[in-house]
């Protein structure tokens, strides 16, 4: 059953002729990992903003569990690329932040924080401050904070975009194991084709001018990773490479059509 | 000459290195050097006899005066009593400026309408020299403590207001959105995200404000004061007691510097994350 439903979304920013987003519909269920892939300007950040409740759509509607979405809400935790943690709190307090806002008692908070930090491999840095950590570790804290909160789904805004290639690869695998463990739906946006293919249960390819969905795929590689297959084997599989090249060609074709 | 040669950046074969490995001086040592040099220069000028003591008393005389003022006083009050009177005014004005400036600064930083309303008023009074509106304050509020504290309060208020509004306005949007998506209410957002995020700016505003407060002390104590460092300096100036003037200046500078160091320390303790890449 799908929790989050977006129906025929359109966003036109004031003073802009072309819509930032047009005719976008999608659904996100409990075990889904929907990835929006596209170049800058394709409206994927706008789409995430609408789903999160930060941006009001000019057309269409979003609902969560049958209720219309009009504002940010605790059931839809957002993970940003950077700058979203609170540097005056230590790692444990950052992870506990969502629960504290909800008035969850301290003993329970500590339990959840310990479990979640364990899950993202940060069990021994709870007392450190976020600015004392590497970029990859900070993103783990961000993911842990979203998981520890009472969210039902995670909305991830290019969560690994600022990381180096090696860390990014590790984080993708971490995300899949966390997703499996926490059992929450994830909507993630990225401009990295490999990342999108590897992670997505459903991949939506987006294109600019106006921002819209041009293709939908169900890659299924994340399921193979969950079933125990090696990540390098998956990413060098001929099927993976063929899909990657097809998406790349499709992106370039869109760009040329636009320029013409 | 080929085109390639132009693109080469010449790097010297040997980089200049210091001949002897010397231990670098600490910041405190540098500061002591500058204080020591200026004192030495002061002493040298007065010792040479080129400048009469009326214009510039020798360091020794000022030090001796310090002893006299501590034990016998000047203008019916000891140096400690003058200092205490001034400190009380400054601290009272500072507390009032913080109590008014921070909430108002938050409102200005949060609501554009409040900013548009108050901006002209703040920018109207802020550049005015305190001596210019001093007569009005005396006419309106009399010659008591209130007028003195009010004058200092106004000087501290503007920097605190402006810094708080700026700090509140520049709290990262992403950080606020993330907190909202974790279920923060407006009040929780202010308390847990906006205020801590603005704290470095607020503390900087208080530091600048305190400096402005000290600089209006003499003007404030023109208003029928019987005690205070500002009063002490003015009276001494009228009777050409230059050593008391110099001593008053040094005492104000030392006390203000001590407060500034305390605030800097507070800032480092409260906001160690400020300026870190995050």
From TrEMBL, chain B:
Keywords: Cell membrane, Membrane, Transmembrane, Transmembrane helix, Transport
Record-linked InterPro entries: MetI-like, MetI-like_sf
Recorded topology in the membrane: Multi-pass membrane protein
Chief location bin: membrane
Matching Pfam families: BPD_transp_1 (PF00528)
Localization in the cell: Cell membrane
Membrane-spanning segments: 30-55, 90-112, 124-143, 149-168, 189-210, 236-259
Family: Belongs to the binding-protein-dependent transport system permease family.
Protein name, UniProt field: Taurine ABC transporter permease TauC
Gene of this entry: tauC
């Amino acid at each position: 059953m799908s929790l989050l439903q977006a129906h025929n979304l359109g966003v036109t920013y004031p003073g802009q002729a072309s819509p930032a987003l047009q005719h976008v519909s999608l659904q996100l269920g409990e075990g889904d990992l929907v990835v929006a892939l596209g170049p800058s300007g394709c409206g994927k950040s706008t789409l995430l903003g609408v789903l999160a409740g930060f941006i009001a759509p000019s057309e269409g509607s979003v609902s969560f569990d049958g209720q219309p979405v009009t504002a940010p809400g605790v059931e839809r935790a957002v993970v940003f690329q950077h700058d979203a943690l609170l540097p005056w709190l230590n790692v444990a307090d950052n992870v506990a932040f969502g629960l504290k806002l909800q008035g969850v008692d301290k003993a329970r908070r500590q339990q959840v924080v310990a479990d979640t930090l364990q899950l993202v491999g940060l069990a021994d840095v709870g007392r450190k401050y976020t600015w004392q950590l590497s970029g990859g570790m900070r993103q783990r804290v961000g993911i842990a904070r979203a998981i520890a909160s009472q969210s039902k789904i995670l909305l991830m805004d290019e969560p690994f975009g600022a990381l180096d290639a090696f860390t990014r690869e590790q984080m993708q695998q971490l995300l899949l194991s966390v997703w499996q463990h926490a059992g929450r739906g994830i909507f993630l946006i990225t401009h990295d084709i490999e990342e999108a293919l590897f992670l997505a249960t459903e991949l939506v390819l987006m294109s600019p001018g106006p921002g819209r969905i041009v293709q939908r795929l169900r890659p299924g590689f994340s399921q193979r990773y969950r079933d125990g297959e090696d990540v390098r084997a998956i990413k060098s599989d001929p099927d993976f490479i063929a899909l990657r090249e097809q998406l790349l060609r499709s992106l370039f074709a869109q760009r040329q059509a636009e320029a013409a | 000459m080929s085109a390639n040669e132009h693109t080469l950046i010449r790097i010297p074969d040997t980089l200049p290195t210091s001949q002897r490995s010397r231990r670098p001086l600490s910041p405190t040592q540098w500061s002591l050097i500058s204080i020591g040099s200026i004192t030495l220069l002061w002493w040298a000028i007065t010792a040479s006899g080129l400048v009469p003591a009326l214009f510039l008393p020798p360091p020794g005389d000022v030090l001796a005066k310090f002893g006299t003022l501590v034990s016998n006083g000047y203008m019916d009050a000891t140096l400690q009593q003058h200092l205490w009177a001034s400190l009380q005014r400054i601290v009272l004005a500072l507390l009032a400026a913080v109590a008014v400036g921070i909430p108002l600064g938050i409102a200005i930083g949060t609501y554009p309408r409040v900013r548009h309303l108050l901006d002209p008023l703040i920018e109207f009074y802020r550049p005015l020299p305190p001596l210019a509106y001093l007569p009005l304050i005396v006419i309106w509020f009399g010659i008591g403590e209130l007028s003195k504290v009010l004058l200092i309060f106004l000087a501290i208020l503007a920097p605190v207001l402006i810094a708080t509004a700026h700090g509140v306005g520049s709290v990262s949007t992403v950080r606020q959105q993330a907190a909202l998506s974790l279920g923060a209410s407006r009040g929780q957002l202010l308390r847990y995200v906006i205020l801590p995020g603005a704290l470095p700016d607020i503390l900087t505003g208080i530091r600048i404000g305190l400096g402005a407060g000290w600089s209006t002390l003499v003007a404030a104590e023109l208003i029928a004061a019987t005690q205070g460092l500002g009063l002490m300096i003015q009276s001494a100036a009228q009777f050409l007691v230059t050593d008391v003037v110099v001593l008053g200046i040094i005492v104000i500078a030392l006390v203000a510097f001590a407060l500034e160091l305390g605030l800097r320390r507070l800032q480092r303790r409260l906001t160690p994350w400020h300026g870190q890449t995050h």
